[in-house]
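Take a protein:
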Amino acid sequence: MLLDAFRALFWREFNSIHDGAAYFHVRPVTVKRWLDGSTPPNPMAEKLLIIKARGYLPNDLNWQGFKVNEARAVIITPDGREFAPRELEAFPLWRDQYHALKDRYGLIERPPVKPAAAPVTVYRGGKRKQPAPWIPTRDKMK
């Protein structure tokens, strides 16, 4: 990857050098050196940046227009519909139900658009997910 392309992609994806350094797990001075051209960017950092920019989807015409929103954990279709990864497990069942209803009752006009399901919180970055409100914690037990 050329330095200008790396620099442009970096600033499109990150708001600060510190954000980029945290993403690549390097010091901010290393990112500064990559951006000013004194040292070439690490090839794995280039690949990670391309993956982040592409939204983890292949560079293929079949995936053109699809996006992944990392913060909200949803896949966005070209027409703006959103799916949580957990919802996609039930997609074959939904498709079969839709075709069965269509065969039985005829053409179904545009079905209503529902928002994506809330993402599942997981253990991430040294922080555990919040306990359920009905489970007593040590502070509540005292």
User: Anything to note?
Assistant: The longest strand covers residues 67-69. The chain is about 40% helix and 5% strand.
